[in-house]
Amino acid sequence: MTAADVRGFDPGDGRLSTPSAGRAAARSVGVPAVLPPSSPDRGNPEPAWSEVVEHFREGLIVCDADGVVRHVSPVAERLLPEVAPGRHLAAPGIAVLTEVAAEPDGFGHHGRRLRIRRVPLSGSRSCLYVEDVTDSVSRADALLAERARSAFLAVVGEKLGNPLHPDRAAAAVVRLTVPTLAEVAVLVLAPRAGRARWWRATRADDESPTVDSGVLPAAALPSAIAEGLSGVEPHAVDWLVEQAAEAGWLPGLAAREVTARVVPLPGRDTPAGVLLVARRTRWYDDADVELVRAFAARAGAALTTAILYRNQAEVADTLQASLVPVEPAGAAGVQWGTAYRPAQASLRIGGDFYGAHRLADGGSVFFLGDVSGKGVEAAVFTGQLRQCLQALYRVESHPGRLLKLLNDALLETTQAHGQGRFATMVLGVVRPQRNGGLSLTMAGGGHLPPLVLRNSGDVETVPLRGMLIGVVPDPRIGEVTVRLAAGETCLLYSDGVTEARGGRRGDEQFGQDRLVHAVTACQRMPAPALAERIEQITCDWLAHGDHDDIAVLALRATGPGGRPRRHLHSVPAMAGTAEERTS
Fold first, then answer.
1. Distance between CA atoms of 7 and 18, rounded to whole angstroms?
2. What does the alpha-carbon distance between residue 459 and residue 444 come to, in Å, rounded to a whole number?
3. β-sheet bridge partners, residue 72
């Protein structure tokens, strides 16, 4: 029951003014009702109003028209001991009451939070209702603080969910720390190769945080940071500031007025790093430390993910670099041209491969092939195949016999690992001739036949046949020898070119005929430009659709001197009209 619930009493004479009001007030506080004069019990004295209001949650201070205090309820006496009957509200020590009466959030007084409402009464008198709102304000403040912490952590989770690079994630962590948790924040990642990267965020006035970074030798890290990296949260906060100041991490902050904390950032097995937070506004109380720890948990998860992604990317890059086709080694009298486009461009590797190795007699072993499947598994198989070739060509340079040795090696590898993989391949040996031409001896293992571009402009299909490699123990291997005059080119390609689907309906294969038309009249084109042209024409035909791995290897006889003749050339148009090319 509050004082506002009671109406009708007259504080001037200390009696309840009406019988009905007396009954209501008495019932609310559990005392006998005040009866009207006609009641048989009217001889019972009516209770004083002070006896009623002493049970109110609010304190009452009644003042006369001159502002002199006339009555003070027991609750008001307890909350405002300075106020006593007979004192004026403007007297020293209590004049503040009239100033704070309009404050909606109340005011602090003797360690409590009070709120005052002033209500006018009859006869120009007034009543001050004094309420102790300490608990309710504390609950409201705690609720607002919890909502602010939850909102901050929600933003942190959103902002730290994107960076997949440790540097960007670390910069985001310190940027989010300022100014909510600190004026200066320093993040130190776990040392790598004896060195530790650190990021720092500082804020001046209302400007956005400024982020910088640096590197420290692991042995030079402050002991508090090293202790945090071991998974222990340092508690001696007095020397944390000194170490941070010595490291130069607290610009513009005097060490004597700064408080700091160091919190490890959880990682997979060991901390991913440590976070140093420092500010001069106030100490880090228990609630602040819990918020810093909750932030550190989210930051540690983000950094751990970014570091794991980086490590996996480094491994993937290393493996991809070993599986990507290697450009052919230079050879006298030969100009090489290559083009490569895997089916999954993001992987940069696939199931097509090519290469060349120099022989001791001045010639070169060259090859182009295609393994079954695509993607990572196919690329791994091509890596095994290329490693076998690199070892076998040193003991056998004859194309047919070398291809059979390769077949035997692949059979052993696939059977040992339970794989059912195979490959198609053209493998040859090229040797320069005295007249500036080239002699090519090629063996076929179930691959598409090469094309030869003659100086006359004619395009010849090399009649090379053979069986798949890696399927049967003694495959039938085709073999053929081709001679190139100076300026002529031999073109090897994978089925990603001829089986590319596109055209007007999007389901028509590019085919052998269109390929022949595409290279007709390109006899004067350098080998690199020719390979690039084949790739470009194939991609135009696909119109950005899905495709198989595409690989092209061209070798051109450069003539005497071993260098290609200088000439101007233009890329000729494909034979036929545009409508015919897409029909």
1. 10
2. 19
3. 61
Burial profile 160-177: b = 16 or more Cβ within 10 angstroms, e = fewer = beebeebeebbbbbbbbb
Backbone angles phi, psi at 275, to 5 degrees: -120, 125
Please say whether the beta carbons of 46 and 16 come within 8 A.
Answer: yes
User: CB count, 10 Å around CB of 367?
Assistant: 28
Give the strand pairing for 438-445 and 550-557: unpaired
HEC per residue, 95-133: CHHHHHCCCCCCEEECCEEEEEEEEECHHHCEEEEEEEC
User: What is the per-residue pLDDT for 576?
Assistant: 41
Place 48 in a pLDDT band, splitting at 50, 70 and 90. low
49 to 21, 115, 118, 422: CA distances (angstroms): 11, 23, 19, 105
Contacts 24+ apart (CB under 8 A), 324-329: 324/348, 324/349, 325/352, 325/353, 325/354, 325/355, 325/551, 326/355, 326/386, 328/354, 328/355, 328/356, 328/364, 328/366, 328/553, 328/555, 329/356, 329/357, 329/358, 329/364
pLDDT-wise least confident of 93-97, 156-160, 217-221, 507-511: 93-97
Q: How far, in Å, CA of 337 to CA of 413, rounded? A: 31
DSSP state of 439: E
Long-range residue pairs from 534-537, CB within 8 A, at least 24 positions apart, any chain? 534/339, 534/491, 534/493, 534/497, 535/339, 535/340, 535/341, 537/574
In eight-state DSSP terms, residue 454 is -
* Contact call for residues 59 and 79 (beta carbons, < 8 A): yes
Which helix (H) or strand (E) element contains residue 516?
helix 511-519
For residue range 412-437, list pLDDT tens digits in order.
Answer: 876 655 566 788 999 999 999 988 89
444, amino acid identity: G
